[in-house]
Amino acid sequence: MTVMIENPSQATTRSRDPQELLNAVQDRIEHLTVNILDDGMSIWDREIALLLRDGVDTRETAERILSNAVMYMLASMENPDVHIGVGKIVDKGVRQVILDTPVYFAFCDLYNGGKYKHHAPFIKRRSDGLVIRTADFLRSCGFSPDEELWAKDGTDCSPCDSKVPDSH
Question: How many CB atoms lie within 10 A of CB 159?
Fold first, then answer.
């Protein structure tokens, strides 16, 4: 009889549901837990509430943005050698998670082998279709990106320096 023990971080990424992927980091949150966990909200609901607080108009829009941000962040961690980028809309969700540092650290811990994944955008946007190519790449990774969100910024990317060690 052969017994296989799975790497917990690899097992977690079998799901391609962004809400499940984000909520899975809860047990890894180590810092400022009174701020993050004591209100009884899921991590997903917390990030949605923060997006709504900071100017996203509706919960539906906030969920679409956050879903696509989680897809992007996970794909960048699973495929560090692939250069991908987001547009202005999805970048709101990426920045939201990164700014909630205890959540982002836990995300990196679970999905990036404990290594911090940098986000160092260039000032000048790219207009070469990288956003559309990123949506295509997300589909190839088993995700279902929101076509409308990615198409809106299809030629207006907020790229990061792929040469910085472990950046997206």
Answer: 20
> Cβ(156)–Cβ(128) under 8 Å?
no
**H or E stretch covering 8:** helix 8-12
Dist. CA 26–CA 153, nearest whole Å:
31
pLDDT digits (tens, 9 = 90+) for 105-152: 999 999 999 999 988 777 777 677 788 899 999 999 999 999 999 988
Beta bridge partners of 87: 157
Rounded to the nearest 5°, which phi and psi values hold at 126? Answer: -95, 150
Count CB atoms within 10 A of the CB of residue 61: 16
- Give the chain's largest Cα–Cα span: 57
Predicted TM-score (pTM) of this structure: 0.84
Structure tokens at 17: 């549901």
